[in-house]
Give the backbone structure.
Amino acid sequence: MEHQTQTESMLWEEQVPLMQQGLHKRLVALAYENPATRYKVYPARENVFSAMRQTSLKATRVVIIGQDPYFNEHSGQGPEAHGLCFSVQSGIPIPPSLRNILQEVNISVYEGRRVSVESDLSRWASQGVLLLNASLTVIAGQPNSHAGLGWHQVTDDIIATISRKKDNVVFMLWGAFAQKKIALIDRKKHLVLATSHPSPLSAHKGFLGSGVFRRCNKYLAENGFPPIEW
């Protein structure tokens, strides 16, 4: 246990093998410095690793996996993406998937009261919820445009590292893409909550009414952790 405590106190870069090798830095350079790419890239470069910066390995109790950053920008307000999956900063119009996420929180955790309304999910990140996109960058207006860049190798390694080094983490896998990550997770010592994606096209097929946020808190409490204030 002492060894686990010591390793958990280290940086992600010291614990995730591909980050130890510097792959994440090379991918940032590919995404933002490639002279052949004249397109705008989201999120802002300084926000690429916001999820890991706001939620340390030691603090991680829940992992929510998205596919890639939001690819839209609002005139005069900035891009939707800011480094946390599904989240947008205050003042940015709330995307439909996030609206459904907040709806499910309020129904399942707060008995229908509109308690969780803030679009910036940094409040979750500060409580140990790692909001991780599989791709950490995207070209403006082009969804999944950086899916082949190499980010999936890094983020798969992050997921596998959490599974290997931690116990009793809740992994929320919403939709078919996220559920492919099950192979990286040791289900004997972690909880996987799999539902349909919260997008308007599929939220009614299992996400809405799933109670994933309530079930997450129940599991955390059963394992001696405080609940997340969703």
Observations:
- Confidence is low (pLDDT under 50) at residues 1-7.
- The longest strand covers residues 62-66.
